[in-house]
Amino acid sequence: MTRAGRTVRFDGVTKRYGSVTAVADLTLAVEDGLHCLLGPNGSGKSTLLRLAAGLTRPTAGRVEAPAELGVGFQRPSFYPGLSVRENVWTFASLSGATDGEWLQTVVDELRLDRALDRRAGGLSEGFARKLDLALAFLRRPPVVLLDEPLGALDDLSRERFLAFVGAYADGRLDGGADAADRTVLVATHRLSEFRAHADRVAVLHRGELVADDLSPDDDTLVDGYARRLLDRENGTVR
Fold first, then answer.
1. Residue 221: pLDDT above 70?
2. C-alpha–C-alpha distance, residues 214 and 227, integer Å
3. Beta carbons within 8 Å of 182's beta carbon, 6+ residues apart
4. How far is residue 98's CA from residue 111's CA, in Å, rounded to a whole number?
5. The pLDDT value given to residue 224
6. DSSP-H helix ranges across the chain
């Protein structure tokens, strides 16, 4: 797999909705590993993911992303009238995912095995979220986009999913043979939950890139925000 096949790139991207600028002249590239887009609500994180997924087009600039993407956004994408099992196999069939062993791994890692025969529309909010996240990984895509993936998950489910997504990003679920061939881009407002698993962090504020390519252990970062972001609010950007 070429680097282009696992790279998401924004080049001078602006996105406006009417008079509102959601993203302003932003340039960013991510590849290989688990990357966090960090910022408060309304900072442009979700808009960037939608741009990367091709769900909306930039007002200006260019977005590059591979055609093969896994997407786990906050609005469910599963079929509510089907069971969990039927959803997994339907999405697998539609996407050409034929590796039954991998499908079972995803189901087991997200603990969906206990709900396979339940109707998706009747699931608890937590199980519904886990099903939607599982669907993003069925094809074992080179790039996965996740928008606030931990919402509605209980503490144990959060820990299991974080371990899963961290292992997916660094290739441990492939026995290390393909360690460089996964990119996961996560939008979050709480870095603390991802700190142990993230490789790099970018900070957004009001549609602008405040900081880029930070280590999750960088002492400028605080939970959900960044001191650089706060400096910007005070007019003392470093």
1. no
2. 12
3. 6, 32, 33, 142, 143, 144, 168, 169, 170, 171
4. 20
5. 44
6. 45-52, 84-95, 100-109, 125-137, 155-170, 227-233
What would the two tokens of residue 114 be?
A: 């206990």
162 alpha carbon, distance to own chain's centre: 12
Q: How many CA atoms lie within 13 Å of 16's alpha carbon, on the beta-carbon side?
A: 8
Strand 20-31 versus strand 183-188 pairing type: unpaired
Taking only the tens place, the pLDDT of each residue in 157-174 is 999 999 999 999 988 886
- Of the candidates 104, 146, 107, 147, the one whose C-alpha atom is nearest the C-alpha of residue 127 is 107
**pLDDT recorded at residue 59:** 98
- CB burial readout 31-69, b (16+ within 10 A) else e: bbbbbbbbbeeebbbbbbbbbbbeeeebeebebebbeeb
CA distance 182 to 184: 7
Predicted TM-score (pTM) of the model is 0.89
pLDDT of residue 4: 59
What the block records as the tokens of 235 is: 């007019």
- Answer whether 43's CB lies under 8 Å from 204's CB: yes
d(CA 201, CA 197): 11
Percent of the chain with pLDDT over 70: 87
